[in-house]
Amino acid sequence: MAGFSRSGGDPEPPPRLSAQPGDSKGEGRCGLVLEQPVERGEGGLGSSGQPGYGGRMVASQGLPVTSGNARDLASEPTPVILLKEGTDTSQGIPQLLSNINACQVIAEAIRTTLGPRGMDKLIVDDRGKATISNDGATILKLLDVVHPAAKTLVDIAKSQDAEVGDGTTSVTMLAAEFLKQVKPYVEEGVHPQIIIRAFRTATELAVNKIKEIAVTVKKEDKAEQRRLLEKCAATALNSKLISQQKDFFSRMVVDAVMMLDELLQLKMIGIKKVQGGALEESQLVAGVAFKKTFSYAGFEMQQKKYKSPKIALLNIELELKAEKDNAEVRVNNVKDYQAIVDAEWSILYDKLDKIHKSGAKVVLSKLPIGDVATQYFADRDMFCAGRVPEEDLKRTMMACGGSIQTSVNALTDDVLGLCELFEEAQIGGERYNFFTGCPKAKTCTLLLRGGAEQFMEETERSLHDAIMIVRRAIKNDSIVAGGGAIEMELSKYLRDYSRTIPGKQQLLIGAYAKALEIIPRQLCDNAGFDATNILNKLRAKHAQGGTWYGVDVNNEDIADNFEAYVWEPAVVRINALTAASEAACLIVSVDETIKNPRSTVDAPAGGRGRGRGRPHNH
């Protein structure tokens, strides 16, 4: 429709988008319409009242243009339907500020969980299950966040948890604080691309600075490396529910990770929770331990301890069962029926005989081991367990050697596992199977003791974070001081850098530098300290060259946190900074939010005789 000119030669004003309410009768008339004034001109309405070749059709209400209604339609805008009725659109600075505010709300939800004096959150889901945690990623996973911009912060917390295991609260707070500091510039009309460019420059400078000042520990010195790993694990556990036992658990975590092979596969560390007892009764098993599986009658007669046994790992069902599929057998007399029954028993006993002749003393199977097989093994001084979880079966194979067999026809010594000691022991109210002294032990099991179920689940999450940190510290042997020390040093460095450059970049990099101070500030707030006073001390100390000075939560002061062994892998801070900066840039770069309406009517099921996508016959 655009492109026609007025009769006087002046060009028509360009069409403009405007929002109009939907029509109650028309389907799909919605928000966005294209308005263009309609005027008579040369080549307009012909003598018959119909539009001429050069005229303009008015697509309003679907009515044809006649001499009777042309005057009325000429004053109406021309709607062009773009979006479905009920679609919510927002654009420009107001929607960007709305997204920034949503991110602030997410940060507020987990702000108080940061640091060794952080509080815990009790979250109850829709099924009534209660979870107590102060892990940022866990809390955000359990919150049912619906705001699209706020979901970005949830995603970066999850990615931080998956990548390095710790720093999930920090990364969320940094991203929210970056946005908070640039909010005034957005309101003043600074272009988002200028903000993004400044953030990327600042992030690159900060990451390079971390790599420059990080301290590297030589792997050749095993004692020094172990001390480093224990301190990193203790720092990760310092903010957890089990912080009182951090020394006990940090040693256990380091021992567990050091038992793994060079790949440091996380799935090779099993964590089992046993209710009852004290936390200090938790133990590390240098091998495999798993809960005793369901057993049929006859297991009481089986021996519960073997020295140097051969272990058969199977994926075979060893029980007589009814046919799964409908089967029909026609027999002429009882002898034929008895022959079928005898054949079934013969097949089962043939399998059991082959297992016995292989020399295996311990038989584990992923599938059920029935009562007949249980009695058979008990009579021959053998131990068996069916329905063993696949994860535990694989870890047993990794520790004891051998391979999981789907047939009993080739049970040679090559496919059987070995261990120095197998025993079944009582732990709390449960019985556990232990495989220790494994020749190929590249796996281990942590048996956690404790009271409430929620407490033990949080203990497991805390140890998972510590294990991830130790793995990262082994792979990347450079460390920095925690407690807000590295953030204060980066803030001072970027603030000094910003003074050397002109223009808006100076202000924006200065805002980035100020945002980094949220970590030490929040550590002070959560501990009940005077944050302003301590931050002033830290700024002064870092200006004098005190690189590793951070918050001392024990003495309500500042301290050299490197000397105090508050260490964490440099990769944790690098990941947190880059992820937070990326998230902030992503949110700032969004200039329009369009929310499609949720369909209120379920799609009809395909009718009989009409395939999906085939048109209806009217």
TrEMBL record:
<dbReference type="InterPro" id="IPR017998">
    <property type="entry name" value="Chaperone_TCP-1"/>
</dbReference>
<feature type="region of interest" description="Disordered">
    <location>
        <begin position="598"/>
        <end position="618"/>
    </location>
</feature>
<feature type="compositionally biased region" description="Basic residues">
    <location>
        <begin position="609"/>
        <end position="618"/>
    </location>
</feature>
<feature type="compositionally biased region" description="Gly residues">
    <location>
        <begin position="43"/>
        <end position="55"/>
    </location>
</feature>
<dbReference type="Pfam" id="PF00118">
    <property type="entry name" value="Cpn60_TCP1"/>
</dbReference>
<dbReference type="InterPro" id="IPR027409">
    <property type="entry name" value="GroEL-like_apical_dom_sf"/>
</dbReference>
<keyword id="KW-0378">Hydrolase</keyword>
<dbReference type="InterPro" id="IPR053374">
    <property type="entry name" value="TCP-1_chaperonin"/>
</dbReference>
<keyword id="KW-0067">ATP-binding</keyword>
<comment type="function">
    <text>Molecular chaperone; assists the folding of proteins upon ATP hydrolysis. Known to play a role, in vitro, in the folding of actin and tubulin.</text>
</comment>
<comment type="subunit">
    <text>Component of the chaperonin-containing T-complex (TRiC), a hexadecamer composed of two identical back-to-back stacked rings enclosing a protein folding chamber. Each ring is made up of eight different subunits: TCP1/CCT1, CCT2, CCT3, CCT4, CCT5, CCT6A/CCT6, CCT7, CCT8.</text>
</comment>
<dbReference type="GO" id="GO:0140662">
    <property type="term" value="F:ATP-dependent protein folding chaperone"/>
</dbReference>
<dbReference type="InterPro" id="IPR054827">
    <property type="entry name" value="thermosome_alpha"/>
</dbReference>
<dbReference type="GO" id="GO:0051082">
    <property type="term" value="F:unfolded protein binding"/>
</dbReference>
<keyword id="KW-0460">Magnesium</keyword>
<dbReference type="InterPro" id="IPR027410">
    <property type="entry name" value="TCP-1-like_intermed_sf"/>
</dbReference>
<keyword id="KW-0547">Nucleotide-binding</keyword>
<dbReference type="InterPro" id="IPR012720">
    <property type="entry name" value="Chap_CCT_eta"/>
</dbReference>
<comment type="function">
    <text>Component of the chaperonin-containing T-complex (TRiC), a molecular chaperone complex that assists the folding of actin, tubulin and other proteins upon ATP hydrolysis.</text>
</comment>
<keyword id="KW-0963">Cytoplasm</keyword>
<keyword id="KW-0143">Chaperone</keyword>
<feature type="region of interest" description="Disordered">
    <location>
        <begin position="1"/>
        <end position="72"/>
    </location>
</feature>
<comment type="similarity">
    <text>Belongs to the TCP-1 chaperonin family.</text>
</comment>
<protein>
    <recommendedName>
        <fullName>T-complex protein 1 subunit eta</fullName>
    </recommendedName>
</protein>
<dbReference type="InterPro" id="IPR002423">
    <property type="entry name" value="Cpn60/GroEL/TCP-1"/>
</dbReference>
<dbReference type="InterPro" id="IPR027413">
    <property type="entry name" value="GROEL-like_equatorial_sf"/>
</dbReference>
<dbReference type="InterPro" id="IPR002194">
    <property type="entry name" value="Chaperonin_TCP-1_CS"/>
</dbReference>
<comment type="subunit">
    <text>Heterooligomeric complex that forms two stacked rings.</text>
</comment>
<dbReference type="GO" id="GO:0016887">
    <property type="term" value="F:ATP hydrolysis activity"/>
</dbReference>
<dbReference type="GO" id="GO:0005832">
    <property type="term" value="C:chaperonin-containing T-complex"/>
</dbReference>
<dbReference type="GO" id="GO:0005524">
    <property type="term" value="F:ATP binding"/>
</dbReference>
